[in-house]
Structure prediction request, 229 residues.
Amino acid sequence: MRTDILTRHSLAWLSAEGWQRAALAATADKQATLARWQQEDWPLVLRRRAADTPPDELCLGLALPPDGNGDKARIPLQVQLTDVQRFAEPLTLRQALAHMPSGWSGPLRAFAGDCLHSGIALRLYGSWAWQILTRQSYVTANSDIDLLFTPRNASEFSRGMALLAQHAARLPLDGEVIFPDGHAVAWKECWQALQAGAEVGAAARVLVKTESAVQLRTLASLMSSLEPA
Prediction:
């Protein structure tokens, strides 16, 4: 995977030297977790860059399984680019179906089938992704299905948004739309703006996440980066 197309939620595996440096920078209470992550060869996830991150460093992180209160501890790391042994894109929804929690089985297969029929490709992050990658228990009765939708053109955007809205009635679908310029918006926020009507919705300002910041943009400016239908 080329480093110039890395985005938030990309997976990264550290080298032995990378883990050693990460452990030296971590507090004592994080040492055992990092040691296990290295031993199991589990990935870290690329997170939003801090403002003062040097160009040759990456901001990564991991999330632990939820505790008895449902809270997930997160460990942020900042590593040298050379400390990363390999990268991968987030899991695809089709890959994840083989590890489907039983409570989602029927509705999720129907959703995945409709996506395949419509040519909509989705990727996975969040609790279900961590559960698949580490074989630990992350998914609870309150978990969402966090998806990444990266439409290439206006037609794909419309089809994908309609499918997400349709199947959200039976599944806890959450996640982001990633526009071609790399800007990410919660799909539910996009859908709400679209439902406001063409003129009003296009002018609606939505919360946008970039690789290094959070900002407000109009939906129209984001959709202009899509190829015409």
About this structure: The first strand starts at residue 11 and ends at 14. Residues 93-223 form one domain.
